[in-house]
Design goal:
- This protein has eight helices and seven strands.
- The chain is α+β, with helices and mostly antiparallel strands and 193 residues long.
- The protein folds into two domains: 3-109, Beta Polymerase, domain 2, CATH 3.30.460.40; 112-191, no CATH class.
- Strands 1-2-5-4-3 form a five-stranded mixed β-sheet, sandwiched between helices. A two-stranded antiparallel ribbon has the order 6-7.
- A hairpin with a 2-residue loop joins strand 4 and strand 5 (76-82).
Length: 193
């Protein structure tokens, strides 16, 4: 699916969700495009309730576990973060805004909501050895931090409610490393002026 087809399919999906009054929140790569440039994606990520998903039979569910489902909407891959997961429910509830998408206004995660989801996923990705996704997620985190400078301690407090202490320590270490890289980048940028 090329980028024009992707955007048309996403626009149709948002129209269906709006018409059926489905509660959702856009997260992932397409949400990131509202905040940073240069992010490529071939799918759409939504936070949604399983009961809401059942009201959209056009989304053919291809796999599902307790926290996630994957579906297909006319060739568009949809990754669903189910609100059974308390963090996903918290992001949908407290870290949401509206953003324009074509002719529509859509529910979209805030910068802080996107950071929470990326940080939450990192310990699991490290355990899986999924270094391609780790690199992508860490780059997304670094880019959002560099562009928006959100306060991190409230995010770490929120994450402490959803991850064990070992994972929280790992998340803090990753953030410290990213912040050091950003500081080095900033120092180089300043010396190059």
């Amino acid at each position: 699916m090329n980028s024009d087809q992707l955007l048309q399919s996403v626009d149709r999906l948002f129209t269906v969700l709006e018409t059926r009054q489905i509660d959702y929140l856009l997260v992932g790569g397409i949400a990131l495009l509202h905040y940073i440039e240069g992010r490529n994606t071939e799918d759409i990520d939504l936070i949604m309730a399983l009961t809401a998903l059942k009201k959209v039979p056009e989304i053919r569910v291809t796999s599902q576990d307790h926290n996630f489902a994957r579906g297909d909407f006319a060739g568009l891959q949809i990754d669903l973060f189910l609100i059974r997961n308390p963090l996903f429910a918290a992001v949908r509830q407290s870290y949401a805004t509206t953003q324009p998408f074509g002719e529509q206004m859509i529910a979209c995660a805030t910068v802080e909501g996107l950071l929470l989801l990326k940080l939450y996923a990192l310990p699991s990705l490290y355990r899986q050895g999924n270094f391609a996704r780790i690199g992508l997620y860490e780059n997304d985190i670094a880019t959002l931090l560099q562009a928006y400078h959100p306060p991190l301690e409230p995010l770490l407090v929120e994450l402490a409610n959803h991850v064990n202490s070992t994972d929280l320590t790992a998340i803090r270490e990753v953030l410290a490393d990213i912040q050091q890289r950003l500081a080095r980048f900033g120092a180089r940028s300043q010396s190059g002026k």
